[in-house]
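Q: I'm writing up a methods section and want to include an example of the input and output format. Could you take the sequence below and give the corresponding predicted structure tokens, formatted cleanly so I can copy it straight into the document?
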Amino acid sequence: MLELIKAGGFLMWPIIACSVISVAIVLERLWAYQTRKVIPDYLLAQIWQLHQKGEISAAHIATIRDGSPLGRILAAGLVNRAHSREIMKESIEEEGRQVVHELDRYLNSLGTIAAISPLLGLLGTVIGMIKVFTAITSAGVGNPGVLAGGISEALITTAAGLSVAIPALIFHRYLSGRVDRLVISMEAESLKMVEVMHGERER
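A: Here is the clean output for your methods example:
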């Protein structure tokens, strides 16, 4: 492996750095996007029970807010539960935009890695081919050993760049879709809470 890295030239190091960063982002986001962490099953039922008993206090709202991303959104509505349905929805939407922004964290970086990794590989290819033609100019084509170094550098960096970019792109698309599904579920839960509290929907 070390020999391949050396043969690929200095551009192998930023490609390796991209691979390490992308793996870290994917693992962290997969952990963060667990449904039980983002949208706890019990949360809406718990709020409904507290609402029926008239026991929703500032302490309860703070606990709900700190528990999950959905909790943050619902807590924003609970703070304004004494106001109209429209005001509750507006406060939920405002908090929801912030939550979605945080859920999207690092995805732009992953997308950037997916875009620049093949470009780094292409740059390595160009540099390798420049070395090949420089060797041809100075030594001719009679010594294949002189040409092999530049050609191998070109091929290795290209393969390395694609090996990083392809998984990064796949996981970027998957995680973006995961965020979209979580957002839709949170919107549904929030709307359900608003309508139940204002008597416009059966539990």
